[in-house]
Amino acid sequence: MIESWIPLDGDGDFSIQNLPYGVFSDAADPTPRCGVRIGDFVLDLKALSSSAAVAESLSSLHSCAALFAQPYLNGFAAAGRTVHRNVRRDLQRILDAKTDLPQVLEKNEVLRQQALVPVAKVVMQLPVQIGDYTDFYAGYHHAYNVGVLFRGPENALQPNYTHLPVGYHGRSSSIMVSGGSIKRPWGQILPSPGAAPITSPSRKMDFELELGCIIGSPNALGEPVDVNRAEEHIFGYVLLNDWSARDIQAWEYVPLGPFNGKNFGSTISPWVVTTDALEPFRTEPLANETALQDYLQEAQKSVFDITLSVSIQDDDAQPTTISTTSSKNLLWSFPQMIAHHTLGGCPLQPGDMLGSGTISGTETDERGSLLEMTEGGKQDVKLTGGGGTSRSMRFLQDGDSVTLMGRCEREGLRIGFGCCHGRLLAASER
Amino acid sequence: MIESWIPLDGDGDFSIQNLPYGVFSDAADPTPRCGVRIGDFVLDLKALSSSAAVAESLSSLHSCAALFAQPYLNGFAAAGRTVHRNVRRDLQRILDAKTDLPQVLEKNEVLRQQALVPVAKVVMQLPVQIGDYTDFYAGYHHAYNVGVLFRGPENALQPNYTHLPVGYHGRSSSIMVSGGSIKRPWGQILPSPGAAPITSPSRKMDFELELGCIIGSPNALGEPVDVNRAEEHIFGYVLLNDWSARDIQAWEYVPLGPFNGKNFGSTISPWVVTTDALEPFRTEPLANETALQDYLQEAQKSVFDITLSVSIQDDDAQPTTISTTSSKNLLWSFPQMIAHHTLGGCPLQPGDMLGSGTISGTETDERGSLLEMTEGGKQDVKLTGGGGTSRSMRFLQDGDSVTLMGRCEREGLRIGFGCCHGRLLAASER
């Protein structure tokens, strides 16, 4: 297994086998541009790919110079997986501790000073301009847990659930990058069952632990994507917190689905982890007893075993990890979601995002939302925190921070997503 | 009432009181740019606003020259209503038969030849780049009619319906401008109630007659729009056909709402009609017995009385107008929809589109969808056509064209939308 001449960061999330893409700016140059994460550094791909040293020896990387100068990764995402693989190979070649091209970066003092920016000095931006955001409901245990809460165990799953990846269109304008804050939303809620609605700040604020899939190559209007070609349309993956106001959602969602209960904000992690990085972590999907339609039958495993966690932090306390689960708890893979989404010809564009839906395991401390962990607000979740600030919670309080993390690890190989962090602020005065 | 020195077109939709905005290209210049419709001509706003004659005498129009050179109206939409009003005043001033500035355009042979393009020579484009598309369900009789079909007259409307404008997020990537074709989508359907699902081209293809509202000035994340300020955020209106596959929709939509039953394509008319043009046609909204929450209470009438019609045309026959209704059949105005949409802080961006939902009157020939007109596919709709091609229909057949039209008319004043036209093609082979 190759190692880089750049030391790993403390967490070890960003090894030379990972190389996730993001968009950043810094004080020296406030123009957002594309970068790749390695250890505790962001490698400025605009500076690197346009350098004379790269122009001389690494044609794939150099050919993307104009794309990496953009303030979003959409152009690079659209370039397709062959380009992504070639650029990854070029990057690994110059970052390898045994590089055969030390003159490009390792021994190139000027370029290193310019292109290798300490992560503490950068401000991360949204990695892609998201045209359309679709949220699926592919987390089997989540769908089951929520179904039990609403309809009892007999009718927990709707009849269509195991036949197709249920999904709906979400709001792209309110997606923000990790680090942003959201205000507790006002909305119409029923203060008690059967009461008249009131207009109030949400009283049931929740997070949702999801994976986001970023589209690379598009499909044209009217042209479905074959499930076994769908991975060629994926640029990579991020962590996604689909903040939810459960009381707003409960009153509004019949018959057309969630709306204001979700569209006030979603948070994604800044680093797009590619399928090539996740390759060693393919796993069996959850068993589905239903005979699948042809267009959903996959020839290969395309669910990944990514360990996902949620921690919550009071204003002053230490974070408490309240849930740990895995992305293998999906009934549907992203290629299946893409095949279904495009079956009728819907065009997916570079930078579009598909959410997995909330990912939960079977146990209480493996659940991806407070709705499930507290069984609809009836059970306490303990925050152990520190400094005497332990408390029990049912839904989020003003000032709470929610941090999602994701990581794959096996036999010394580690691929991490970093974190997806957001803080809930008090509602506005009206 | 002022008249223009440019003669009205045959329909009279595009008078000097209308002046809707669009984006066009032509053989002489295939670069899409902004224009305004007057009679049978498109006035090239890029050429006009950047001309020396305008620079000398019309500062508002001239100040938008860079915006009108864009391939979308988003920049101009974002400029805000004061700018829109000033540009409208400048345009009316030079187009008026009694213009005090004949040297700018009427007597300026060179600029007239360049900027006044016969509509037969242009290709219309999507007027705006639509970031997010939200579809509401504000057509009261439609919601009632569909509710009766699914749940009977006792429970036709859901409990939330009269308390808030129910809406959901739609798909923006598949919105096309009038004149485009869509293929009949494949999807999962239940061939009969309770049967196992199959993958098939939809057998229940329908149109939906809607108004689309295009957002101008944005609101920031976390900042709601006051209902009585909401019109300041509207750039204008288009006709919208939200094509629907009823069988796909019926199987997929519980519990998260419509998805593949809608996202294969929507068609909008090319000309954005401004609120200033519609001003004389304000009318009383439908009565709502429910006590409204404060944030939905409007100080002025903001529903318009626009006569809307649907015609269908066989491959060879003449079009048959099958339905005529009015936009006054909305329970909620667009300002109310905007106030609700942003209540929790959701940001609306310039170019975003809000659909009204299907607009139907109370009578069979006033309904905005075949689902309603045929009572769920049980009654025939007659196409009288011509040349012996009369037929009865329940849902759309391959080759059928659907044309929506919209027009306001009173005391010699006419404001038209032109048409929103689309054709259904046969499904792809799989």
- The chain-level structural class of chain A is alpha+beta
What global shape of chain A is seen?
A: globular
Largest interface: A-B, 59 and 59 residues
- Beta-strand content estimate of chain A: 25-35%
The percentage helix of chain A is 10-25%
- How big is the Rg of chain A? 22 Å
Number of domains of chain A: 2
Strand order of the largest sheet of chain A: 7-6-21-13-14-16-8
Extended strand count of chain A: 25
CATH superfamily of the largest domain in chain A: Fumarylacetoacetase-like, C-terminal domain
- Multimerization status: homodimer
The CATH topology of the largest domain in chain A: Fumarylacetoacetate hydrolase, domain 2
The CATH class of the largest domain in chain A is Alpha Beta
Q: In whole angstroms, how far apart are the ends of chain A?
A: 58 Å
Q: Helical stretch count of chain A? A: 12
Describe this entry's structure for a reader.
The structure is a homodimer of 430-residue chains. By secondary structure, chain A is an alpha+beta fold. Chain A folds into 2 domains: 21-124, Roll (SH3 type barrels); 133-306 and 325-377, Fumarylacetoacetate hydrolase, domain 2 (Alpha-Beta Complex). Chain A has helices at 45-49, 52-57, 59-63, 65-68, 74-78, 81-95, 109-115, 140-151, 246-252, 275-278, 334-341, 370-373, and strands spanning 21-26, 29-38, 41-44, 116-118, 122-125, 133-136, 167-169, 175-177, 181-183, 186-189, 198-201, 205-206, 209-215, 234-241, 244-245, 266-268, 282-283, 303-304, 307-313, 320-326, 353-355, 381-383, 391-393, 401-410, 413-425. Chain A has a 7-stranded mixed beta sheet with strand order 7-6-21-13-14-16-8, covered by helices on one side. Chain A has a 5-stranded antiparallel beta sheet with strand order 4-3-2-1-5. In chain A, strand 19 and strand 20 (320-326) form a beta hairpin. The longest helix of chain A is centred in the first third of the chain and has 15 residues, at 81-95. At the A-B interface, strand 7, strand 10 and helix 9 of A face strand 7, strand 10 and helix 9 of B.
